[in-house]
Amino acid sequence: MAVLQMQKIGICALKRDRPAILEFLQAAGVVEVTQEEAESGAFARADMLEERQLAEARAAQADRALEVLDEYAPEETSLFSGLAGRPPADMEKFGRMEENAGKILEDADQILALQKEIAEKRTAAARLETEAESLTPWLSLDIPLACREQGRITILLGTVPGEQSSEGIAAALAGCGPDPERVVLEIVHADADQTCIGLVCLREDALALEEALRGIGFARPAKSIDEVPAAYVRGLKEAGKKREEEAAAAENRLRAHVNSRENLKLASDYYRLCAQKDEALSQLWQSEKTFLVTGYIPARESARLGERLSARFDVFYEVSEIPEGEEAPVLLSNGHFASAAEGITASYGLPAGGEIDPTAIMSVCYVFFFGMMLSDAAYGLIIFLACFLAIRKFPDMEENLRKSLRLFMYCGVSTLVWGVLFGGWFGDVVDIVSQTWFGKRVTVPALWFIPLNDPMRLLIVSLFLGAVHLFLGLGIKGYLLLRDRKYMDFFCSVALWYLLLFSLILMLIPSSLFAPMLGVQVVFPAFVNAAARWGAVLGAAGIVIFSARDKKNPILRLALGAYDLYGVSSWLSDALSYSRLLALGLATGVIASVINQMGSMAGTGILGTLIFIVVFCFGHLFNLAINLLGAYVHTCRLQYVEFFGKFYEGGGRAFEPFKRSTKYVKIKEE
To answer: pTM for the whole thing?
Structure first.
């Protein structure tokens, strides 16, 4: 349980060695570069914004090309490929990137250009298809849509809303002036949305007839074409087909770049590293011939880094302690077991200045409570084996994922142990199978007790473990106060609360409230009862008197002390929160039992056996998934709210070293 001690580092070196030193520091990955103020006006910072933006743009260009390749020529991956981690690559490949980067970026340009061409061709084909569909109602017309006049004859082509009949349209035209005998009307197409019509009349009658038609919503076609619609539509479809063929050809040319995928990944990471170096370079103070690097480094790494730097370069290297009041970045360092739970701590917040790293203690509590909530030996064995095999199978797995799987592996062991104690193996599947298929009930005995048969006993255990957990958190607070020599604060904020809470517990245990839960009436000797009463009185009085001891006004002091004493109710609510250990533990067993009973209802025949197997597999898979999620969430809550709430605030800033941060490959350490 440790927060690594940080030191400040200063490096002064010749400017000619700057690229090599930055490369060295990036490979070492143990220095967080900071922007300190220069004491001399001879130093200035280099403006690397343009170079960094260029490198980031090139990395983004390679990323976009990779996304396009993944869209048109996806890699074949297995179900567990996400566990494999990034493939390793040595620096020799990155050294050749500077020579090959131009050609690789040309490939990226071609890929992106082909994607653009494909999109344009597909858009053009879709536009042609839409235009062809818009002309579908006119396909039976045997004259061009652009046809307007032929000698003394005028042709009116257009649409009216809704489905109309020839009689209805003729009625709308009646009385407009022209003799109906001199007008020819034809319905080209009619549906619920519109009616396409063609009308032939004398030129002198056209204006009046069109005015009459507009009264019923007549509109000319949106596009006037000089061809017969059927022929024009055939041309559109042929053009659309050609665009689709061109798009398919472009797709094939794009897929031919699939062999560029690995080079694009290397190029993306190469330019990503260049951008990181440019960003670090912009933070350095430089003179005409020298430059300065300032930052933070873990104390355990400072001597080794100094030796390696001095052996390779002409440098002045200085390490100093962090001044009081300056907030240093936080880097956790825990053993193999506790380090698996560092992500749980980081999700809440890293330790701030003066706080301890709670991960070691919290990890034990987390695994303990997780197993109690899931509490099925078979589920625990499945979780353990799945995580253990995944860790062994994929040695290059990302470190954070590896830690998470290790944590769940330990939680699986805890679940297995609690399941053995409570007698849960896929719920009561042994009982159901033996009774249904063999006619004789066989029960796997619990090493302790079966929660479904004795839930009150489990509630007592849960509340007891909760009290231990809460008192442990209060004890850590007391340790921190004693460490900082705040003895009065320890007495008032820890000792008096221990006295009050222990006394109240001793008073409650013999009461009628606890008797039904315990199943027995507890009777303490008279001196214990008296000591509990006096302890509660002294603890409460001490809290009221001393909680606001910094206030000079006696009335305000007592009022604030009474308000602090009211906090005993929060202790009660915190303790009751641990009843979720009972709730989730019972939920796992009850759902598992219901699944087993449902599966056995189909009988003992072949069909019944098959149904039982299907219900068993899918039902327990669902039960495991839902209760695994519940155990994770509620165990986190017990740590974050109840446990951390007693002594831990967090808020520390994570240590962010200047290192090789890549996306696609993992660089082998030199």
So the answer is: 0.86
Find the distance separating the first CA and the last CA of the chain, reported in whole Å.
30
**Sequence-separated (6 or more) residues with CB below 8 Å from residue 79:** none
Contact 8, 294 (CB under 8 A): yes
Contact 547, 494 (CB under 8 A): no
Query: HEC profile for 106-147?
Result: HHHHHHHHHHHHHHHHHHHHHHHHHHHHHCHHHCCCCCCCCC
Give CA torsion, residues 460, 466, 468, 471, to 10 deg. Answer: -140
Instruction: Give the number of other Cβ atoms within 10 Å of residue 341's Cβ.
Output: 27
Q: Determine how many CB atoms are found less than 10 A away from the CB of residue 550.
A: 7
DSSP-derived 3-state class of residue 8: strand
Closest CA to 328 of 283, 296, 280, 300: 296
The secondary structure element, H or E, covering residue 481 is: helix 455-483
Residues with Cβ < 8 Å from 497, sequence gap 6 or more? 474, 539, 543
Q: What is the DSSP string of 253-290?
A: HHHGGGGGHHHHHHHHHHHHHHHHHHHHHTTSEE-SSE
CB 595 within 8 A of CB 620: yes
* Coil vs helix vs strand at 213: helix
The encoded tokens of residue 513 equal 């409230």
Q: What string of DSSP letters covers 319-332?
A: EEEPPTT----B-E
Distances (CA, A) of 142 to 138, 184, 191, 405, 451: 9, 15, 20, 73, 85
Summarize pLDDT for 362-413 with one digit per residue, the tens: 999 999 999 999 999 999 999 999 999 999 999 889 999 999 999 999 999 9
Residue ranges and CATH numbers for the domains of the chain are: 1-36+285-331 (3.30.70.120), 136-224 (3.30.70.2750), 335-453+578-650 (no CATH), 477-577 (no CATH)
Residue carrying structure tokens 């005409």: 288
> What is the sign of the dihedral through the CA atoms of 510, 515, 521 and 522?
negative
CA 385 to the chain's CA centroid: 25
Rounded to the nearest 5°, which phi and psi values hold at 138?
Answer: -100, 10
User: Burial letters for 637-650: b for 16+ Cβ neighbours within 10 Å, e otherwise?
Assistant: ebbbebbbebbbeb
CA distance 605 to 601: 11
Question: pLDDT tens digits for 314-372?
Answer: 999 899 999 888 889 999 999 999 999 999 999 999 999 889 999 999 999 999 999 99
pLDDT digits (tens, 9 = 90+) for 510-539: 877 676 666 677 788 888 889 999 999 999
CA distance 530 to 612: 60
Distance of alpha carbon 9 from alpha carbon 307, whole angstroms:
14
pLDDT band of residue 38 (cuts 50, 70, 90) is low
- Contact (CB, 8 A) for 659 and 36: no
Question: Is 195:114 a contact under the CB 8 Å cutoff?
Answer: no
Residue 516: per-residue pLDDT: 67
